[in-house]
Write a structure and sequence with these properties.
Length: 120
Amino acid sequence: AMPNFVRRWIINAVSVALAAHLVGGIHLHGGVLETFMVALVFGLVNAFVKPLAVLLSLPLLLFSLGLFYFVLNGAMLMLTARLTPYLDVDGLGAAVLGSLVISLASVAMGRLIEKTEPRD
């Protein structure tokens, strides 16, 4: 069986590529390798920066009934674009839409893989 982090990395890469394909303001530069680099950086940003951002914005999250979470996800995608030369995001609107596509695609692929993987 594939290690969990590798599976998540692949799902992340496909999701980012899908967002770049579907959302006009998101641009990937390069090929498969560069897409995997973007996915790795995005994964690290979500693992280390996002929990702190969520904690610091708890009042906003509560006040907006959780809607600010979409803005936070968009901000994480924008930060990823700043940290890697292989991704460009044209503003917060594209970032929020892109992060929504990434989230939905990731969940869908994750569930699909769970259903198709043999149980031990």
